[in-house]
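A.,

Following up on our hallway conversation. Structure tokens first:
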């Protein structure tokens, strides 16, 4: 049976559990919700849940007996066959990784715990408590090892948190502690993260999976005073040259910065990519700044470094993000998603080590601050402190 794109379907509403099959023995669970929605093409609304985060999917339709739904901020989608009202079988497809990157996914009606294998919860062993701040090392013992802050909130055997790194955070992780075992996961449409760990002798050691393409080790020790380096100190001017660049805009016309129309304005230059969840979080925050201060002279220019090498596809992804986030920034295409390329373009800085990187420029054209990475709302006080400081900075620059 071939169904048209406006075909209604019949599935059970309420809480569901999704499983992404990362390999033959490892699945990443996530919480999913389906509610009735008379305004949608299929008659339902679909939401991915990560802790306090809610991601409502868009562009739902049924074609050739398959349900397709898109993630709102990325060029990713989910496609399912409707086995019955309580089972959907299909794939998560992420073209930002490669043209054929897909991970098998099943959605099952019902939800109790994210890691709800009954065998995990049959043990009478009291669960350890890992609430607090943990000094974390990814890939310990290897040349590429790097530090992070593990921020965990435990309630019973429920667990939420994130990892704070020098280039951003791991967004909203949700999971459980069972006995001496730790389980956390996040699926936001761009990344699929799974953490497993064991607590022994006051240390956590475990595995970290990113989609089906990467896995590594991590370890952590409790350290309430551990901090990362100041994100305002990592990228800095090495030349006295002003910030200048020339890139294509969404109409493929060249935009040069600065230009005569830029005088007496404050600028944020956002170096980003549409494939990057931290960039999306930063864009949403910058939208609040833009809406608040644009009339007073704030401009935001987003220079995007995109996956692949097809310029048309890269520009389409940028246009889609702009529309879905409903932002009015000036968007430019920097090139392919490569920090080395971005460093060449912005060679007045020591280096670009992260997408996103934000450059704050005053009315006199000089750089006032460069901020590496972005700690989103999943980091709690770090996000709140940054928004307060940045709002204050913009107000002071506009008043000069």
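Then the amino acids I'd put at each of the 400 positions:
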């Amino acid at each position: 049976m071939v169904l048209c794109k406006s075909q209604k379907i019949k599935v059970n509403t309420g809480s569901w559990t999704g499983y992404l099959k990362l390999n033959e023995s490892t699945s990443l669970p996530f919480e999913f919700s389906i509610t009735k929605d008379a305004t949608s093409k299929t008659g339902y609304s679909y939401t991915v849940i990560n802790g306090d985060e809610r991601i409502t999917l868009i562009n739902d339709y049924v074609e050739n007996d398959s349900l397709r739904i898109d993630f709102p901020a990325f060029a990713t989608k989910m496609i399912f066959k409707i086995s019955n009202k309580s089972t959907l079988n299909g794939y998560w497809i992420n073209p930002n990784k490669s043209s054929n990157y897909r991970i098998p996914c099943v959605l099952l009606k019902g939800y109790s715990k994210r890691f709800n294998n009954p065998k995990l919860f049959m043990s009478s062993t009291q669960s350890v408590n890992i609430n607090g701040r943990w000094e974390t090392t990814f890939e310990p013992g290897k040349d590429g090892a790097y530090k992070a802050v593990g921020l965990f909130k435990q309630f019973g055997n429920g667990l939420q948190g994130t990892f704070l790194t020098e280039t951003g955070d791991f967004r909203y992780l949700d999971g459980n502690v069972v006995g001496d075992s730790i389980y956390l996961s996040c699926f936001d449409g761009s990344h699929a993260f799974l953490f497993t760990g064991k607590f022994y002798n006051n240390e956590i050691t475990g595995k970290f999976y990113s989609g089906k393409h990467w896995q590594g080790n991590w370890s952590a020790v409790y350290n309430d005073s551990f901090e990362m380096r100041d994100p305002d100190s990592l990228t800095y001017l090495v030349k006295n040259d002003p910030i200048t660049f020339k890139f294509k805009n969404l109409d493929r016309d060249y935009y040069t910065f600065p230009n005569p129309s830029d005088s007496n304005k404050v600028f944020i230059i956002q170096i980003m990519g549409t494939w990057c969840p931290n960039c999306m979080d930063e864009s949403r925050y910058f939208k609040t700044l833009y809406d608040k201060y644009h009339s007073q002279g704030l401009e935001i220019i987003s220079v995007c470094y995109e996956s692949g090498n097809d310029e048309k596809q890269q520009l389409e992804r940028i246009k889609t993000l702009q529309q879905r986030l409903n932002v009015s920034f000036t968007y430019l295409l920097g090139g392919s998603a490569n920090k080395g390329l971005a460093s060449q373009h912005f060679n007045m800085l020591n280096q670009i080590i992260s997408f996103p990187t934000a450059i704050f420029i005053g009315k006199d054209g000089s750089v006032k601050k460069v901020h590496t990475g972005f700690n989103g709302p999943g980091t709690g006080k770090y996000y709140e402190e940054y928004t307060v400081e940045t709002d204050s900075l913009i107000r002071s620059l506009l008043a000069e």
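The CA atoms of residues 20 and 26 lie 9 Å apart. Curious whether your intuition agrees with the design.

B.
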